[in-house]
Every structure is written in C-alpha cells, then in structure tokens.
C-alpha cells in the first residue's frame, strides 16, 4: 500500500511539474494553436457588438457550414459564428459559449450529431486547455482532471515541433464574423470528394430520457440570464439511410433531448442533408455553395420563431 501511495505521489508531482512549466519548453500543438486563434477572432467579434446578438455554437460543422454574415443580413441583427472544433466535445463548447452569452442574446445550438453524451475528455481538449484555458479544468468533474492534466506528453509536443518544421502551422482562413473563408468548391479535389463520399454512418448515442448534466446546466444558465435558446441541425452529407423509416430514431433522439429541456428545435434533420457536390473536405463541412443553402434554411427557420425586420415589424425575441 505504501509503495502504491509513493507511486501516486511521484506521478502527481511529475504531472504538476509538467503542467506548471515543463510543457512550455516545447511548441504548442498545431490543433491547439489553430483552435486558440479561432476563439481569439470569434471572441473579438462578440466584443465588438454592444447589444443583443445571435451566437451560433458548435464545432467545425458550424464554422464551415453556416455563414454569420449571411444570417446577419437575413435577421437584421448581428450574428457571430462561434463554431470551432467538435473534438473539444459538447461540454467544453457549451462552457465556452456560456462565458460570452449576455442578456438578450439568442444562442443557436447546432452541436454535431453524436456529441450530446456524457463524454470522456478527448486528446484535442487536453491539448487545448493545457495551453489556452487551464481554468476550465477545475470546473469539470473530478474524473476528468487526470485525462486533462496528463493528456499531453512530451512525445506529443516533440512531434508537434517536427510537424511544424516540416509543414508549418495550419493557416487560419476566417473573416470578422467568424466564418471560414477557405471552403471553396473549386478547392475540392477528386481525392477529397471520394474520401467524403466514403464517410461511414454517424453513431448516435444520445438518450433523450437522460440529457447530459452539462446540457441541463447550460439551459438553466441561459434561462437565468435571459438568453433565448434554439437548437439547430448540423449540416452534413446526405445518405440514403437517413430517409428510411426503419432507421431507429437516430437523429430523432437529438430532437427529443432538446425538447425534453424545453429548447425549440428548428426544422427537421432532413432539412440539413446535402448532396456530395455541396460538401468541402468532410461529410460535416459544406463548401460555400452548400453553406449558402444551409444558412438560408436556418435563417428562414429562425424568422419563424422571432419577428425578423425583413418580414415586417421590429425584431422581437421570445422568452425561452
């Protein structure tokens, strides 16, 4: 028993030393750097808006597949694309959004299908929070502390240094509203298109009868703060199975989860399924042509819930 305790203490001290400063001797992993730059641009966009706004919250599906600039024109109110990286997990995406939402805001949750579950912290999240958001770690549940603290090894960072030397940093292509600017249909090669076409069926593990605790807390915080919430669908590649009646409620489980919490769901999942020609570099990323279609659909659905100025009358946001 004493030996186990000594091993535990040794590991704890090693981890503390690494987290306290050892990791800063090597370069920030490329994905963490890219996400950090994304949040920097998007939070600056939020800060420039003095009053109520619309915030699109999700991972990279929203970053690539919805246009805040286009929605701003449709809704006649400022919109910020707060989509970043699904690898962070829904818990972190909501935690980060909660820090920035203000009274009078409208938050549209387009969380990627399959993320709404009690998830284990990912390596992407560990790499990011260690360098850019360590204050998030104590706000999580205790079982998440060890994976987040020990999720980045010296090997990971040495590999990052080699990759950075060979390939350079991933460049950020983003506009002032938080939208991606590099998702051009003309940039999609036949090889990429074949890769996207081979995407397997998504796995839905959401249990509508037991919404994740972090989602329940987020909804409660929005209500307390006077924020209007809507749930939207993550645009993705259309597959025949999504139209079959025999499909066992895969996407319907997501809708039921939000409805159980009293969050209105905008449209149906089939409204946001797109052909291969509208995709970019992933089944969950649309090119600029598909993005325009998805955003037009989302704008119309939002305007059915609020009184958009373009439809006549002053914009009025309903209570959640």
* SSE succession: HHEHHEHEHHHHHEEHEEEH
Q: What is the share of helical residues?
A: 40-55%
- State the CATH architecture: 3-Layer(aba) Sandwich
**What is the helix tally?**
12
Number of domains: 1
Number-wise, the strands total 8
* End-to-end CA span: 54 Å
In CATH, the homologous superfamily goes by the name SGNH hydrolase
- Unreliable residue stretches: 313-320
Largest sheet: 4 strands, parallel
Average pLDDT, all residues: 85
What labels would you give this structure?
320 residues; alpha/beta; Rossmann fold; 4-stranded parallel β-sheet; two-stranded parallel ribbon; 12 helices; globular; disordered C terminus
Q: How would you describe this structure to a colleague?
A:
The chain has 320 residues and is an alpha/beta fold. The chain has a single domain, classed as SGNH hydrolase (Rossmann fold, 3-Layer(aba) Sandwich), CATH 3.40.50. It is built from twelve helices and eight strands. The chain has helices at residues 2-20, 30-48, 60-65, 68-75, 90-100, 123-132, 145-149, 154-167, 190-197, 213-225, 252-260, 288-305, and strands at 54-57, 79-81, 106-109, 228-231, 236-237, 273-274, 279-282, 285-286. It has a four-stranded parallel beta sheet. A hairpin with a 2-residue loop joins β7 and β8 (285-286). α2 (30-48) packs across α6, α4 (68-75) runs parallel beside α12 and α5 (90-100) runs parallel beside α10. The chain is globular. The termini are far apart. Mean pLDDT is 85; it is low at 313-320.
């Amino acid at each position: 028993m004493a030996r186990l305790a000594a091993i535990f203490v040794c590991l704890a001290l090693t981890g503390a030393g690494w987290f306290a400063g050892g990791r800063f001797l090597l370069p920030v992993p490329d994905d963490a750097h890219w996400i950090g730059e994304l949040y920097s641009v998007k939070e600056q966009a939020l800060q420039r808006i003095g009053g109520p706004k619309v915030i699109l919250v999700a991972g990279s599906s929203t970053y690539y597949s919805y246009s805040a600039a286009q929605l701003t024109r449709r809704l006649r109110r400022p919109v910020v694309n707060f989509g970043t990286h699904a690898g962070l997990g829904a818990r972190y995406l909501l935690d980060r959004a909660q820090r920035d939402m203000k009274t009078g805001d409208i938050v549209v949750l387009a969380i990627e299908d399959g993320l709404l579950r009690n998830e284990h912290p990912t390596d992407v999240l560990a790499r990011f929070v260690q360098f850019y958001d360590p204050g998030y770690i104590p706000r999580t549940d205790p079982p998440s502390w060890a994976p987040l603290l020990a999720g980045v090894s010296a090997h990971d960072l040495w590999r990052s240094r080699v990759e950075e030397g060979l390939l350079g940093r991933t460049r950020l292509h983003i506009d002032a509203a938080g939208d991606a600017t590099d998702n051009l249909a003309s940039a999609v090669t036949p090889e990429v298109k074949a890769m996207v076409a081979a995407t397997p069926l998504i796995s839905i593990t959401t249990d509508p009868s037991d919404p994740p605790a972090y989602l329940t807390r987020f909804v409660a915080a929005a209500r307390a703060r006077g924020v209007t919430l809507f749930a939207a669908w993550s645009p993705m590649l259309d597959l025949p199975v999504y139209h079959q009646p025999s499909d066992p409620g895969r996407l319907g489980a997501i809708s039921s989860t939000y409805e159980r919490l009293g969050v209105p769901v905008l449209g149906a999942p089939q409204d946001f399924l797109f052909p291969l020609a509208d995709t970019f570099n992933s089944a969950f990323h649309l090119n600029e042509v598909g993005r325009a279609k998805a955003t037009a659909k989302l704008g119309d659905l939002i305007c059915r819930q609020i009184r958009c100025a373009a439809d006549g009358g002053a914009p009025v946001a309903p209570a959640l």
